[in-house]
DNA sequence: ATTTATGATTGTATAATACAACTATAAACC
DNA sequence: GGTTTATAGTTGTATTATACAATCATAAAT
């Protein structure tokens, strides 16, 4: 790999993180953290914080708080595991599902706006490479 | 642009931000925020917080605190602007320059490790597309 | 029956940020 | 030249996202 490519990736990643960490904080709907958690629940539903934390690669305490917040907002419901007195499931509610869709659509739209001038090919590559990079991070 | 590409970018960006926001927090050297500020100073030196804030697209108060922290650690020095009693310049110190290099090299190495299996072409595209995406974000 | 492991929560700390209030100085305006 | 307004910077306060450590309750193992 050329050193130039490496240096570009290094710098642009740093910038991207900074930019997006705050850019996505300006909504009164779902915050970024809740969003990923809700998505995860929407997909893998019926799991407890421990599983979620593993899937999301976060600390259990973090997920516990996030899940409590979602529960508070009625976006998920917390159900006692009948077979284990310590454990709970979380389930996305219909309302949560609906909010998730609204938020996701808004995100898609705003990203689409950013990419208007991009050749299809670039958008396709960008998605593929981001995914590949995340995979590498996950396996690290 | 295909909807598939858009959806991939949307999801993978969310994941990436989350992953990197914390992944890069585990160093006892420079934190991410200081890093970009120090880089900026290393490049554009001899400017005050207002200029830096504009360049970095951050609030002045944020930069003020970050710069104070760097000054505290002797990574930069704060110099009174002789022509304007309200203003200051910041200048990276030789020590700051050295620390910046050390940190940057470490970052390069760890990213390089993530990309070992990537075709050169992918690394090149990834860098280019990240840069392009950041540019779009900046102009938004 | 006691000890140990596990699922979850809560206390505490840290990092990065923004907005609002404030201070000091400079510039603009009659 | 004195008053008003603009500007550079700092500080107070709040928010969001996170981790680690301590704790609680229950389950599993011995």
Question: Top keywords for this entry?
Answer:
homodimer, about 140 residues, mainly alpha, two-stranded antiparallel ribbon, 6 helices, globular, DNA-binding
Overview of this structure, please?
- The structure is a homodimer of 140-residue chains.
- Chain A has 140 residues and is mainly alpha-helical.
- Helix content of chain A is 69%, strand content 7%.
- Chain A contains six helices and two strands.
- The first copy, chain A, has a two-stranded antiparallel sheet.
- In chain A, strand 1 and strand 2 (88-92) form a beta hairpin.
- The model of chain A is unreliable at 24-28 (pLDDT under 50).
- Chains A and B meet through helix 1, helix 2, helix 5 and helix 6 of A and helix 1, helix 2, helix 5 and helix 6 of B.
- The structure holds a DNA duplex (30 and 30 nucleotides).
């Amino acid at each position: 790999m050329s050193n130039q490519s490496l240096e570009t990736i290094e710098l642009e990643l740093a910038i991207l993180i900074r930019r997006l960490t705050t850019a996505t904080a300006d909504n009164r709907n779902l915050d970024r953290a809740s969003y990923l958690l809700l998505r995860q629940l929407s997909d893998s539903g019926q799991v407890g914080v421990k599983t979620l934390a593993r899937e999301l690669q976060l600390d259990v305490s973090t997920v516990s708080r996030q899940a409590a917040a979602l529960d508070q907002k009625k976006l998920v419901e917390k159900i006692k595991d009948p077979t284990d007195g310590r454990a709970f499931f979380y389930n996305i509610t219909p309302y949560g599902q609906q909010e998730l869709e609204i938020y996701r659509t808004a995100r898609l739209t705003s990203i689409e706006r950013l990419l208007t001038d991009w050749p299809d090919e670039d958008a396709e590559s960008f998605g593929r490479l981001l995914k590949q990079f995340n995979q590498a991070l996950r396996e690290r």
